[in-house]
Amino acid sequence: MPPLLALDQIRLGHGAAPLLDGVDLALGREDRACLVGRNGAGKSTLLKIAAGLVQSDSGARFLQPGAKVAYLTQSPELGTHDTIAAYVATGLPEDRRHEEWRVQAALAPFELDPSRDPSQLSGGEARRAALAQALVDAPDLLLLDEPTNHLDIATIETLETALNEFRGGFVVISHDRAFLTRLTAVTLWLDRGRLRRLESGFGRFEEWSETILDQETVERHKMDRKIEAETKWSREGISARRKRNQGRLRALYAMRDERRAQLDQVGRAEATIAAGPRAATVVIEARHIAKRFGDRTIVSDFSTRIRRGDRVGLVGPNGAGKTTLLNMLIGTLEPDDGYMKLGANLVVQTIDQHRAALDPQRTVADFLTDGAGDQLEVNGVKRHVVGYLRDFLFDGSRAQSPLSSLSGGERGRLLLAKALARPSNLLVLDEPTNDLDLETLDLLEEWLGAYDGTLLLVSHDRDFLDRVVTSTIAFEGDGRVAEYAGGWTDYTRQRPPPAPPERATAPVAKAVTAAAREAGAPVKLNFTQKRDLDRLPAQIERLAAEIAKLETVLADADLYARDPASFQKAIDQLEATRRKLAEAEERWLELAALAESYAR
Questions:
Q1: Contact 425/282 with Cβ under 8 angstroms?
Q2: In angstroms, what CA-CA distances link 278 with 308, 309, 420, 508?
Q3: Phi-psi category of residue 442: left, alpha or beta, with phi > 0 → left and psi -120 to 50 → alpha
Q4: pTM of the entire structure?
Q5: In what order do the strands lie in the sheet with 296-307?
Q6: pLDDT tens sequence across 94-131
Q7: What are phi and psi of 418, to 5 degrees?
């Protein structure tokens, strides 16, 4: 089957290291691909070329006639539209933008009011609206650039469901390992201008890429030995012969240039976090604290004790109050009720989610050194700014670049570089993983593992939380905040089961039905919906019985001591079955509400 979209020998950028160097890409309706690579490798540019938004220097782009491609930019601009619905409708052809039922159906999973003013949306809400706009016309191919940025975990899971049900192909750029592992079946790796393809999902990427890099190491070793032999020949030949073989020397110089380029392009950060004074054993103590804004309760009766060396993650929906609680815990915001105490000798370093510390007019070097020339002090040692930037995977030539020229990932790396250079014993990171590439996330994980201070981390990256934190503070709605041991996965196993879903889908179903009737679209369940409505009650009954059986098994108080593996297996099965039951109940309620609204 011919591809929907194909790129042939795409080149972009001039000089010794072009951004894209002869890239070939073929995408079909069945492809579910992730595009990975370092920040600055050209991933977003390649996606824009595929979308037809950027012209390459050379090469060809082919799109099958009639094929629909939708593109989600890394920074959605909702423009001057009066409502979210008007913005989402721009994803439809002009002659079909009156089909309001399609707009409402696209918005329904993302829980956005179609009548809201787009200019009043938060970053996460704007991205949800942009996702609805990309999906509204049922494209054949989706090109998604960092779709999970600024989304909370619940919305990321909603997006996962939408993409799993999506009938076309997609390519996604993301740093969220859990998201990529669950969704993708093809991995595209953009590295030093070249694109490699693995016919397997992201779960195999690290093993595959390590194999390729090991092969390159062997090749470089062979090249080094050849350079050594050729250098020896040239030195002896100069003294032995008046005429030299210029062609052979040129080949030697070319090999040296190639080797130098390889060393320049394949770097690895070696930075460490600057250590501050030793803090007290109890860093933060909160007893029964509460915070309200008007009639809304953000935090109610929350207590915690955070000790030196703890790594605490804060999770919850966007707007739940994670940053508010964070500010109370570090003493920059007073609670309305309760008792707060901070330990002695605290030296706090903070990175906020809005990158507020970056003045676009300053240069990279000036920002790092605070205008103090070309040196900065790290762990009591003077470092040249160019060398320190290389530790964080920047080319040394970027030192004099304005901050406005940096990508989102590069800005995140630069803020990390500055924060980690300053002594601290309490590190506060508010969504630090946004825009960072996977390699930088690995390095950040290593740096935090070696940090001997205390960490407070707000993140929606489930895999990163599992790798880094020792406990999780979760916002569970209506001001309820609770702390659990372990990372995200541990939290999902320990948290109370979700309440049975209410019949909240009826208003959406009625609105979609009314708009569909007005547009003359079909107003009855399709074959798949009717089949699901008929079979779901039996499935719900079966899942409920399975849950009861597993709960009986886990009621055995001696099971864990007798057979830890069986205990863990039962816990995992119970969690998965509860999730399936909740999904089945929600689907049945949605279809029942839809059938009822059609019958009226």
A1: no
A2: 9, 10, 16, 56
A3: alpha
A4: 0.69
A5: 296-307, 282-293, 337-342
A6: 888 888 888 888 888 888 888 888 888 877 888 889 99
A7: -70, -45
